[in-house]
C-alpha cells in the first residue's frame, strides 16, 4: 500500500523530468531477486515499491524473476499466459526440458509481469551444477547449507532462462539483467562466463561479511581497511557465500549499493568500488486534504491508547494525554539494530524524568519478531478487562440516558441523586474490583520460548524497568509482526507508525534503513545514526536535520557511552516539547517526503541500467559519467522560522504544554512551507557527453 502525504508541501526544486534519449523499444529488462513475490526482508519492499516506476519506463518489456513459493503465489500472483511470443517460447522449452516455470502478474501497484521458477523441482540437478560451479569458478558449496544450495539452483535456472530467451530472439537482443544480492548473484556470474548478450547490474543491499562482523561486536567501520576478508569469512563458515557475492560484484558491468556508507564497506570487503549509489525510495501518494496526515496520526494514536489502557489496567496512574509513544522495529538483531543502546538510554531517560518531576510518561514499543509459543495470558486478560469496563460504562450510560430522557419528557429537571440506583453502583463497583491487579503490567506480550536468554528481556532485568508505578518510562516488547487481525493489537504496521510520536533506530549496521524512511513519509520524527544509509543521506541533503525531526546519532566517532548519552539527550529534549511544537515538527518532517519518493530516487536506477547498456553494447548505446567539480546534491536549509526546539521556546518544561496549546500565536503551515521552498538550494547537475541537457544525475563519488 502506498504511503501518503499532503499537497501542502512543495516538490523538490530544480528536478525537472528527464528527457531520456535511450531507445528502449528493442531492450528488455529482467530484474532478478530471491524476494520477488516472496517477502523475506527489506529487498522485498525495494522491489515492490519500485515496480510501478520501472513498469512505466519499460512497459511490456519489464519482467521480474524470482522463486516459486506456492503460499505466496496463491495470495499475490495472478498466473496468466505470456503475452510476449519470445518469452512464451522460452518458458515452453524450459518446461519441456524438465523445469517448472510460471508466468503471471504480481498484484501490486504497477502490476508487473513475474517469472517464477520452481527451484525444488530441479533439485535433481544440484550435484551436477555444483560440480560445474567448482570447475568454472573454484567455488565449492557445502551440502548442509540449504540457502546456498537454493542460490546455486536459482542461479543456473536464471542463466538458463536468459540464455534461452536470447536464443529464441530473431534479432540480436539488448537484454538488461539486474541482480539483487548474493542469492541471485550466481546467475550474473554465469551470464558473463557463457558470454551471453546481457548487460548486467548487481546491487548489494548489505554485504554478507559486514553483517556477520557487526553481529560479532567488532569496531567495524574504524577497522574496515584492516580485515583479512578471506579469513574472516572462513572463520564464520560463509566463505562460499562470500565468494559468490564477490564474484557477482566483480563480474557485473555496473556494480551498485544502496548508500554511501555501504559503498565504502563494499570497496573494502568486496574489493570493488561501486559505480553508482542507488538509494531506496517509497511510493508517496499525495492527500487532497492539507493536514490529513495529522488527522490520521490522531486516529491511530487513539487506537494505541486503547491498547495501553488494557495493558496497564490496574496501574493507569499516568495521564494518557501526556504520554509519548516511542518505537523501534525491524529484524531481531539486538546490537546491529541498536536495541541495546536504546534500552540503556531509556533507563537514563527514566532517571531524568523522575528527578525533574516530569508529568510526561514514555511508552517504548519493541516490535521485533522472536520465537514465541503464544500470547501472554496476562496481556490478553488486560484487553478483556478493558472491553468489560467499556461495556459496563455503556450499560450504565444507557440506563442513565433513559432516566434523563423520561425526566425531561415530563418537563422536570432530573434529580441527580436518583439517576443512579443501587444496581448501577453495584455494577460499577464490580467493574472497579475487576481492575485490581497484584502483579506489574507485563513487559512482553507473548510467552518467549527462550525467556532466560532473550537479549531484550535480560537487558530489561539489568536496568530494572519493570513498568512499575514509579517509572516514567514503560516498556512493551511485542515479539511478532503487527497485523490488523491480531486479537491483541489489531493494527497494521503503517497504522501503528502513524500513531506513534517518535521512531528510534540507533542502528550500528544499517545499509539503508526503511523504517526511518517510512516514518519520514508519514510525518513522524525519527532518530537514526551516521552509520545508516538513511542517516548519511539525510545529513547530505539537509543542513539541520534535527529541525526537520530527523535526529542523527553519532555512532561512528563516539564510544558507546557517549552515543548513549547523546541518544538520552535527544529523547529528553523531545519529551520537553509541547503538543504544538510536536505538530510543527511533524509538518516539517512530512515536508521531506519528496526526498524519498521513487520518482526522484528511481533516477539513480535508471542511470545504472543505462550505464550497463552502454558498457555491454557500446556500438548502440553511449553513456559517459563525468566526475563532478563540486559537492553534489542539494540541501534543505534550516527552517526559516524558529525551529520547534524547547531550548528556544518560551517554556522548556512540559508543565507549560497546555498554556502553549492555547496561546494566541498562530502557526500557518502554508506560510512555513513557502519559506522553506524559497530557501531550498538548487541541485548540482552533472554534464553528460552527447546527451540532452535535461539528462541529470547527482553523483555520489
UniProtKB/TrEMBL annotation:
GO terms for molecular function: alpha-1,4-glucan glucosyltransferase (UDP-glucose donor) activity. Residues 633-685 are annotated as: Disordered. One of its GO terms (cellular component) is cytoplasm. Keywords: Allosteric enzyme, Glycogen biosynthesis, Glycosyltransferase, Phosphoprotein, Transferase. It catalyses: [(1->4)-alpha-D-glucosyl](n) + UDP-alpha-D-glucose = [(1->4)-alpha-D-glucosyl](n+1) + UDP + H(+). InterPro entries: Glycogen_synth (IPR008631). Pathway: Glycan biosynthesis; glycogen biosynthesis. It comes from the Eukaryota. Its EC number is 2.4.1.11. Residues 660-673 have a biased composition (Acidic residues). The keyword Repeat does not apply. GO terms for biological process: glycogen biosynthetic process. CDD domains: GT3_GSY2-like. Pfam families: Glycogen_syn (PF05693). Belongs to the glycosyltransferase 3 family. Part of the GYS1-GYG1 complex, a heterooctamer composed of a tetramer of GYS1 and 2 dimers of GYG1, where each GYS1 protomer binds to one GYG1 subunit (via GYG1 C-terminus); the GYS1 tetramer may dissociate from GYG1 dimers to continue glycogen polymerization on its own. Transfers the glycosyl residue from UDP-Glc to the non-reducing end of alpha-1,4-glucan. PANTHER family: GLYCOGEN [STARCH] SYNTHASE, MUSCLE, GLYCOGEN SYNTHASE. This is Glycogen [starch] synthase. It comes from Sparus aurata. The lineage of its organism: Eukaryota, Metazoa, Chordata, Craniata, Vertebrata. The gene is GYS1.
